[in-house]
Design brief:
Blueprint (H helix, E strand, L loop, with lengths): L17 H15 L14 E7 L5 H14 L3 E6 L2 E2 L2 E2 L3 H13 L1 H8 L3 H4 L19 H16 L5 E6 L6 H13 L5 E8 L9 H9 L4 E5 L5 H12 L5 H11 L3 H14 L8 H10 L3 H13 L3 E2 H8 L3 H13 L3 E3 L5 E4 L2 H9 L3 H17 L6 H14 L3 H17 L3 H15 L4 H6 L23 H15 L2 H15 L5 H17 L6 H11 L6 H17 L3 H17 L2 H18 L2 H18 L2 H17 L3 H18 L2 H17 L3 H13 L4 H18 L2 H15 L6 H17 L3 H14 L6 H17 L10 H14 L5 H17 L5 H12 L4 H15 L5 H22 L2 H13 L15 H4 L4 H11 L4 H8 L3 H15 L4 H10 L15
Parallel strand pairs: 1-6, 1-7, 2-5, 5-6
Antiparallel strand pairs: 3-4, 8-10, 9-10
Helix pairs in contact: 1-2, 3-4, 4-6, 6-7, 7-8, 9-10, 9-11, 10-11, 11-12, 12-16, 13-15, 13-16, 14-17, 17-18, 18-19, 19-20, 20-22, 22-23, 22-24, 23-24, 24-25, 25-26, 26-27, 26-28, 27-28, 28-29, 28-30, 29-30, 30-31, 30-32, 31-32, 32-33, 32-34, 33-34, 34-35, 34-36, 35-36, 36-37, 36-38, 37-38, ...
Length: about 1000
């Protein structure tokens, strides 16, 4: 409508910024795969940049110039800006706008990338479909949405270079900030450049963007660009471009001094100088902006003031409804404002915005308080009368903001509650919390008839129990507090949530509502755990006392289910069984399917740990089938963590790996990043048991890469520490142990964390010759107890302690306290369950080490240990047992037959140690063979070696080479083996070096020539 109006004050010349533009172009080249290293051979790596600078310094112009250049290089550019309405931001606004732009440009690619997840991604882009309603306290909802968004962008950018530019981050809502941080941390592939700009002068000490900037600064993958002001030469070039003539030097000096090199103010002063003959019109640059407004016709000034209060961008129809002008008058006023370069048409052509936000802020600040309220009322009334005036995803939050700033509590409270429901549906829990706190603020000043007409918030499930009057069904203040407590927990504002629950429980002291009080105590239990204040047991106990004797209900079932889960993790036993069984029963009675499945999962785990393995696993596999049929992501995710963990706990590591492979594929499709991290950690544990240490290390790294939550990070560090300890790198093991302790904390000492950490600390102390510290560590661990079901952690701990004592046998310094230590180990072993072959083997091993620690025992004892491990799939443990048997056979009086058998045992143990990189074991084997003068290498009739092993390839490198030989790219290898493209690239480089070839083709040819992978060999399983 106004597209032909001339805009004169924007310089046609792009001035300066060569270095900054160079950084952006370098990022584009890297993302597009233009680098020289192999890391870029499969399409480059995602790039992230932050562009900061004061208001008016030229951030938008820099991004526009870069975007235009990127488009000329066939990149797809998607721009999105943070939207400000009054003092409020819209949830995910820049991402919604950018995804909408991508959808317009790449409709087929975006649809293909989103296939199967449209309902979830519709929370960001409503055009994709109708978002699915889930539980009101969906723990994984936000993480799932973030992960799916990251995978969507990776898929869209798999074959096309995509530039995602997010402007005005200083206005960003919390959900937008959290999503941006997640993307920057987790994007692993794709030709993608993410740029975000912000005003550095607006980022005061308490600005919510400051913590995000500090976090991103710590990431090596993020580059910062700080735009400075122009120097005099650049200002002169800018003025010349604006005026289309060489400026007078005195004029340049005056404008440069007045603007101090700020590009926007240079423009304003240059135009003012051109129109009025000099640049010194006012004493303040802010007044200069208002002077330009005041030169407009009165109607145009009025329209500018209305636009200023409507938000960053105001739609034409909404503006027309709020302005209440005749159409011709409105058009003329807009033409004047656009012609004066005060307003611009919005990029989509459907509305208007100020050319620069500084002008809008100056106009808005100049409004009188009553004038501001009146304009907000007009917007609210117009939007209420016709909801189609704004995009559907903006309707509720904008109406809530307009009514709130109109200071009409009776209208604002219902609108704010509607916006809170909308925020919950979009997993924008930070905005949901802010809106609910605003609703609580409005509650007392809202007329009673209006409050009485409010109904419980429109959720798919009426849970928790409403505190409303059953006769009227009206909303109660406690309902708002319940909503806010959950929102605070889900968005990470847990201290605020704790304060809300404390206030709620104080109010409930005056009411006889034990069910509601129990619900709030459950929330406090979760919050106390999440804030590392306690293990939450005291709060759960209080909740359990409140529901005792009450009829079955969802709250009652949930309390029992949580008590059972807590007990399973801390003190498994009869009480945990009882709570789990009653939770299942109560959940069935009230139809709480999610609670029932979770309680049955816990019950199955308790059966396994108590020794009734078949019953427990059958229960868990039934839950697996039902959860998958029902599409219950939360239960499915938890099951794929718990089930393989229990399988590993009974020595069925291969079965655990298969379940984990299925689970990893599932969680990546569902976007369950936290669950995926736990699965990677569990996979690392099972692969370690199976002797696939290179893959175990990759899995441990993956568990730390996909998420930043403390518990999975701690579990990943624990796995790295075990690998380092077995490999003989005590310093690295110590560093990883320290990291694991920091992540896992000391507030909730679950045996599944406490005992592995004690095992590591004891092993490191023993390796460094600190036997007294090793004994102290064991004593502390045993004092805390080895509860039922902890044999998977208890036996390795006792074995490490017995081995340390045996290794120190004969050392005078070890004698004081030896008898007490051995008795302590022996007593703990008698009380520890050995109900499956793997722990029965460990029981024999501990007994043999205790005999060795007393200078007793012999080949028969160690033969039993070796025999027990030969039927298990535990190559490292078998190698260690063979080394011990060889040592006992080489004792004086063993004979020649014993020496021959010892030689073969040491040869087998040494081969495993070398293959795994278990340096301490390899050195012990070599030392023992040296002392006994045994030759371990075969000289006659050499055995036929595996060609791959003779080339020095690890297990994982064989998998990678097999796929290289099949013609797979690095990206395809990464997807099939569930590793990053960069890791695949490193493996390929190592393989080329070991094979002595120059390229992938030669490597494939050599693999085929050596028949490394015969056609009849089974297909390579994914290592995920």
């Amino acid at each position: 409508m106004l597209g032909g109006v001339e805009t004169r004050s924007v310089s046609p010349v792009f001035v300066g910024r060569a270095d900054e533009l160079g950084v952006l172009h370098d990022a584009l080249a890297r993302a597009a795969g233009g680098g020289t290293s192999e890391a870029f051979s499969t399409g480059g790596e995602p790039q992230a940049l932050l562009v900061g600078g004061e208001a008016g310094v030229g951030k938008t112009r820099l991004i526009e110039e870069f975007a235009a250049a990127a488009a000329r290089e066939d990149a797809v550019v998607a721009l999105g800006g943070c939207v400000e309405i009054g003092a409020d931001g819209l949830p995910f606004a820049p991402f919604s706008t950018a995804l909408r732009a991508l959808r317009r440009q790449l409709p087929e690619e975006l649809a293909e990338a989103a296939a199967g997840q449209e309902e979830e991604l519709a929370r960001l882009l409503p055009e994709m479909g109708v978002s699915r309603h889930g539980p009101w306290d969906d723990e994984d909802g936000t993480a799932r949405l973030f992960e799916l968004t990251a995978r969507l962008l990776e898929r869209v950018a798999a074959r096309r270079t995509v530039v995602l530019a997010l402007e005005d981050l200083h206005w960003a809502d919390a959900s937008t900030r959290h999503l941006l941080a997640y993307l920057v941390r987790t994007l692993r592939s794709g030709r993608l450049v993410v740029i975000a700009s912000y005003r550095s002068d607006d980022i005061h000490r308490r600005h919510p963007l400051r913590p995000l900037l500090a976090e991103l600064d710590r990431l090596r993958t993020v580059r910062r660009i700080e735009l400075g002001r122009f120097n005099r030469t650049e200002v002169e070039r800018q003025i010349a471009g604006i005026l289309a003539a060489e400026p007078d030097p005195a004029q340049v000096d005056e404008i440069f001094e007045r603007s101090d090199g700020n590009a926007f103010f240079v423009e304003e002063l240059a135009v003012a100088s051109c129109e009025d003959g000099h640049a010194g019109l006012t004493d303040s640059l802010r007044d200069l902006l208002l002077v330009r407004i005041e030169k407009l016709p009165e109607t145009a000034q009025r329209v500018a003031r209305i636009v200023a209060e409507g938000g960053s961008t105001v739609e034409h129809r909404l503006l027309a409804a709020a302005a209440r002008l005749a159409e011709d008058d409105l058009i003329e006023a807009l033409r004047a404002a656009v012609g004066a370069n005060i307003l611009l048409a919005a990029p989509d052509g459907d509305g208007y915005r100020f050319r620069h936000s500084l002008v809008r802020e100056a106009v808005s600040d100049d409004l009188l308080p009553g004038e501001r309220s009146r304009l907000n009322r007009r917007y609210a009334e117009a939007l209420e009368a016709d909801p189609t005036l704004v995009p559907a995803d903006q309707r509720a939050p904008r109406l809530a903001s307009y009514w709130y700033h109109a200071h009409d509590a009776a209208k604002a409270l219902p609108a704010v509650l509607d916006a809170a429901v909308e925020a919950r549906c979009r997993h924008a829990h930070s905005e949901r919390l802010r809106l609910l706190e605003r609703a609580m603020e409005l509650w007392d000043i809202t007329p009673e008839p209006v409050r009485a007409a409010l109904r419980p918030l429109d959720y798919a499930e009426a849970y928790p129990p409403s505190a409303c009057d059953p006769a009227t069904g009206c909303l109660h203040y406690l309902d708002l507090m319940a909503e806010a407590a959950v929102a605070g927990r889900l968005c990470g504002e847990r201290e605020r949530a704790l304060k809300i629950t404390k206030r709620a429980l104080h109010l409930l002291e005056e009411e006889n509502d034990p069910l509601r009080a129990a619900w709030f105590w459950v929330q406090r239990a979760r919050l106390m755990q999440h804030t590392s204040r306690s293990d939450g047991w005291e709060e759960l106990t209080t909740a359990q006392q409140l529901v005792r004797g009450l009829p079955p209900s969802e709250v009652h079932a949930e309390v029992l289910a949580l008590v059972a889960t807590w007990s399973m993790l801390h003190v498994p036993g009869p009480d945990a069984f009882s709570a789990a069984e009653r939770a299942v029963e109560y959940a069935r009675m009230v139809g709480a399917q999610d609670i029932e499945l979770n309680a049955r999962l816990t019950l199955g785990g308790l059966f396994v740990e108590a020794g009734d393995i078949d019953t427990g696993l059958a229960q868990m596999y039934e839950v697996k089938e039902q959860a998958e049929v029902l599409g219950n992501a939360q239960v499915t995710g938890r099951l794929h963590v718990n089930l393989p963990s229990h399988l590993e706990g009974i020595g069925r590591s291969r079965e655990a790996v298969e379940v984990l492979r299925q689970g990893l594929d599932l969680t990546r499709r569902l976007g369950l990043a936290d669950t995926e991290a736990w699965m990677w950690g569990n996979l690392g544990e099972s692969l370690y048991s199976l002797g696939r240490w290179d893959e175990a290390a990759e899995a441990a790294t993956a568990s730390q890469r996909v998420v930043q939550s403390a518990m999975p990070l701690g579990w990943g560090a624990t796995r790295h520490a075990h690998l380092a300890l077995a490999g003989g790198d005590l310093a690295e093991a110590g560093r990883q142990l320290t990291a694991a302790r920091e992540y896992l904390g000391t507030h909730d000492t679950m045996p599944q964390h406490r005992l592995p950490l004690a095992h590591l600390a004891l092993g490191i102390a023993a390796g460094e010759g600190r036997l007294a510290d090793a004994r102290a560590t064991l004593g502390k661990a045993l004092d805390a107890g080895l509860p039922t079901g902890t044999q998977r952690y208890g036996w390795p701990l006792l074995l490490a302690a017995a081995t340390a004592e045996a290794d120190a046998f004969g050392l005078p310094a070890a004698e004081p306290g030896r008898a007490e230590a051995l008795e302590r180990i022996r007593g703990a072993a008698k009380a520890l369950t050995a109900n499956v072959p793997v722990w029965q083997a460990h029981e024999r091993w501990v007994r043999a080490e205790l005999l060795r620690a007393e200078g007793r025992g012999g080949p028969q004892d160690w033969s039993e240990v070796v025999a027990a491990f030969e039927v298990l799939d535990r190559p490292y443990d078998l190698a260690r047992a063979r080394h011990r048997l060889a040592a006992s056979l080489l004792a004086p009086g063993g004979g020649e037959d014993a020496r021959e058998r010892a030689t073969e045992l040491l040869r087998l143990a040494g081969a495993v140690a070398e293959h795994l990189g278990a340096r301490p074991l390899a050195e012990s084997v070599a030392q023992l063979a040296g002392r006994a003068r045994l030759t371990l290498s075969r000289t006659a009739e050499p055995a036929v070696l595996d060609p791959a092993e003779s080339l020095g390839l690890t297990h994982r490198e064989r998998d990678v080479l097999r796929l290289v030989a099949a013609g797979r790219t690095n990206r395809q290898i990464a997807e099939e083996l569930f590793i990053s493209p960069k890791t695949a690239s490193v493996h390929v480089s190592n393989i080329l070096a070991k094979l002595g070839v120059s390229g992938r083709g030669e490597a494939a040819a050599l693999a085929h020539r050596l028949a490394l992978f015969p056609p009849e060999a089974p297909a390579v399983p994914a290592a995920g």
